[in-house]
Amino acid sequence: MDPHRLVLVRSGTTRQRHRVGSGYLIAPRLVLTAAHVLRHGDSDTYWEEIQVRVGHPGRGETLRTGAKLIWTHPQDLDVALLLTHDEIDVPGSVHWGRPVGTAPLRYEGVGFPLASAEDGRDAEHLRGILPPLSSGARGLFVLDQEPAPSPRDDGRKAWGGASGTAVFCDDHLVGLVTRDDQSYGNRRLRAVPAHCFVQDDNFQSLLRRYADGPPRLTEIGAVLPTAQPAAERSLVEQETERLLWSVLGGRITYAAHARALARRLGYTVPDSHEPTMPDLAALVAAHPRALPSLSGTLASALTGEERIRLTDVLTRARAGGLCLLLSLDECEHLLELLRGICKEQPTLIPRAAREALRYAWLPDPLNRTHLCADDLENVVEHLESVSDSERVPDGTPPVPALLRLVECVAAALGKEAGAELRRWSDQVAARTGIHPAALAERRTDAGRWAARQVPPFSRVVVEVARAGSEPRESYYCRILLARADGTHTRLHEAESAPRTPEEVARRVRDAVEVVADELGPTAAPHATVLVGRESLHLPIDEWNPGAPNEFVPDQPIGAEFCITLSCPEMSDLVRSREREHRRRWESGHAAPLVVDDERVTRPRLRRLLQTTHRDATQVVLHGSPEQRDALLELCLALGVPVVLWDRRAECPADAAGLQQLDPTGPLGDLPERVRVFRGTAFDEPETLPARPALVWEEQGRRTRPESLTLKDPQEGVHAS
What we know:
- By secondary structure, the chain is α+β, with helices and mostly antiparallel strands.
- The protein is 31% helix and 19% strand.
- The protein has 19 helices and 23 strands.
- The strands form 5 sheets. It has a 6-stranded antiparallel β-barrel with strand order 1-2-3-6-5-4. A 6-stranded antiparallel sheet has the order 8-9-10-13-12-11, with no helix packed on it.
- Helix 14 (557-560) links the parallel strand 18 (526-530) and strand 19.
């Protein structure tokens, strides 16, 4: 990889919106980049004006010149070639490669992601692991990036601009970055393999004309890890070597095991290779599935005390973070089985995880409506490190949460359809030393779970609290999926960290999707936001989660579904509130009380709500913000369950702003009328300046989550 060949690509004009991407100079006038960087918006047309800057901005002078598009892939792969107006003299040539084998490779590249933009675009050195066995649509390479940016507050992609970055393994160009993958915490990129486009006839013709001939692909394989000198070995390698000595025999035994393991991990190993025990330890330390794979060979040959010792080694190694639970074969088999389930029943695995692992911290994909097959690796790896924390016979290892989930999914599928998953569980339990009685107990629990008739979710409950110590506007949030019978499922996240309004809105939208699936197409999803008194005026309904996909435009969450407020804190402060709240709902919905006179004080409102409007279920508050603040808390303290007001109103004369939603109309569909009004106001902000806020606290549906955890949980937290 030559930093002097680095290219910053800008398409568009100075008068119109342009796109920024990365590229690489593969010949004196040819720039390889991503095709979508050059497209005009979302259309199939390309910008005619293209400017490029060649060279690394931190490594000497850069050259600016124009360019034109001369090639795109005939099968619409996201790659393109640009022809620069000027010839750029860069010594050397580009070497092309094709990763082979199954062992992960180190990769690197240099691009211009938005996250590194300060005064212009700064170059960012991308680096990490390319796992050949992981691939997405059309065989894209997966790039597990080591340094990765956090999501941006403004909703723009932190990786934006990295598209077109050339990917190198062992100094050979093997691919081109085309997109990111936010399912893995912004740490994963996708790249088009070079071997998918360099064989194109027109591509080769252009390299014959402008370079030193067509590309010649060199096979690139991962280098087999070998031991460092004793003084330079890491603590992980030293501990791994100590564990291996406790379960392996003499030199011939471990050498044979080392060769077989290296081949299974994807390395090319000749029969003459004579690895040492430190070499085997280095191999095991480098691959989290190496020790489980090795134990699969050993488990069937060991008996008695040796077998107990192997179980102890695996348990301690997992607890110490030296390995994962599953061997390579077990992981591949499970992913194959789960991919079929994701295709046929995409909601089953998330539903089973939320119910069977209700006290576990679940990864984000399991807190969504559907589980995408591309997210399975992340989900499996997360659950491998979590125990279900139920009792097990003394001296035996805990049962992983992953096995509990697999048993529940198998039970939901039925006896025949789930048989293969149960066989998989039996094999993993036998290898890892899990007691048969412990697995049988989980299998029985799974059967009871699958047979239980659970009422569908009816709404989302969100608790929001401001993160006061944060320099930017951010909030802690906790989400429940509530049922009409009063039960609920709590959505646990991998961390309880402060989030921006946009991030909170995205999580709420994901939760609403889960409820919407169970409600069916005829019912409107409803989200109740629990806030403290000081947060009743937060414009939560205006928080915008961004576009849900590339086709549907964005809108605030309050326009997307019914979102109302609740203040459970008031019930803690006023003993009679719950009684009054229940009585008002049961009174038969008396006419609403409209407060549109600035002379209404707290004493006067109290008399009204305790005499002529004693049975009022709804109050509509107009007037100044100061008057509303005082009267709103009084309404809640006196048990009024529905309160409507306009956050933007400055005086009683602004009451006309809410007339279009018919604030005193039928109470039952008031939340839906407010939602429709919010959507219209979002489209026509100048015509409809009002911003309605609605407290709506239904009788018997006042689910309140546990107290917010305002710190990140410890790594490897158990499920209870």
